[in-house]
Write a structure and sequence with these properties.
It contains 14 helices and 8 strands. By secondary structure, the chain is mainly α.
Length: about 325
């Protein structure tokens, strides 16, 4: 819900969206559940649309209609922001009347297309961030020594003390953006638990593809080729002991080794079509971790079989197997 509120306020403006965290146990939980249902058929429907009515349960269409209605309602309110100079949002950017041309060409975004773009941002930008944070807190709860080291790093920005749970002040992003150990933990979470670990299929263009790395093997044109971040992030010759959650691998002084690891990270994709929300998601994750871990100690729930029940689902955009990673948050002593 935090991630959903973040991307929704970015899209529609703080004055014109209805935050889920205002009512987390009723409307908030209901909206999140419906988004999960509406996305459950994933992308195979675009390859075999003729089977849609046969294979897709009516509950998916019902949930889709309901989340569309929720976005429609907020989009309509957000149109007021076009005349509100205090709001700088996705909608004001897409429908800016003063910038009706882009590189000499007419702006292609009318209200319908802007609404569709906002839906894409919101649908893609909430569960991915939530999945990343769920696994990050699981690893910190599983490794108290890592958690203590991170909290020690955070205390330096609060005069050597933890923040009180009654203190609603927040770290500024500029304060915590480059914290070495926090970034190492986040990078390692991105590596092992990439929120989109599934296959990225592409079609070889006309003329074929010559693979120099494989002794100039020629892949014929029109061949479907693919790769997946899950496998890429587990190459043992690049990431030693790849199944081990090890933030220390990101704190080495070997610049060439670091450069190689960074080059082989695809958690946000790569190139011209990489994730447009990458910076927003990273900002949300860093601020969430910094502000929560400076107030709370996280622990695992006794008797819950984490090894079995939080496995990553084998789907394009992953979620924990039971969509549930229970974590106990205990307030830190501030004195």
């Amino acid at each position: 819900m935090m991630a959903m509120d973040g991307v929704t306020s970015f899209s529609f403006g703080e004055k014109y969206y209805d935050p889920l965290l205002k009512d987390p146990f009723n409307r908030g939980a209901d909206i999140i559940r419906k988004f999960l249902i509406q996305s459950s058929s994933w992308f195979w429907t675009t390859s075999m649309p003729v089977l849609y009515d046969i294979a897709v349960d009516k509950s998916v269409n019902k949930a889709t209609d309901e989340v569309n209605g929720w976005i429609e309602e907020q989009f309509t309110k957000s149109l007021k922001s076009l005349d509100d100079p205090s709001q700088y949002t996705l909608i004001t950017t897409l429908l800016d009347k003063e910038k009706s041309t882009v590189r000499g060409k007419p702006n292609l975004f009318d209200e319908a297309r802007a609404k569709s773009e906002a839906f894409d941002h919101i649908a893609a930008g909430h569960n991915t961030t939530a999945t990343t944070l769920s696994y990050l807190y699981y690893e910190l709860a599983s490794h108290p020594e890592m958690q203590s080291r991170l909290q020690k790093e955070l205390k330096e920005f609060n005069n050597g003390n933890f923040k009180s749970t009654s203190d609603l002040s927040s770290f500024e992003y500029s304060e915590i953006e480059y914290l070495p150990y926090m970034n190492a933990i986040i990078n390692e979470t991105f590596r092992i638990y990439a929120a989109i670990p599934g296959q990225e299929p592409r079609i070889v263009p006309k003329g074929g593809l010559r693979l120099k790395s494989l002794n100039d093997v020629i892949v014929p044109q029109a061949t479907v080729v693919t790769m997946q971040p899950w496998s890429l992030h587990r190459q043992p010759h690049i990431f030693e002991n790849p199944e081990k959650f090890n933030p220390e691998r990101w704190l080495i002084e070997d610049e060439s080794k670091l450069k190689l690891m960074i080059k082989n990270m695809m958690h946000f994709g790569s190139g011209a079509r990489m994730c447009v929300g990458m910076n927003l998601a990273t900002c949300e994750i860093k601020l969430n971790v910094a502000n929560v871990l400076s107030r709370y100690h996280v622990e695992l729930v006794d008797g819950f079989d984490y090894e079995k029940r939080i496995q990553m689902k084998d789907i394009y955009t992953t979620v924990p197997d039971e969509c549930n990673v229970p974590i106990v948050f205990k307030a830190l002593m501030t004195s």
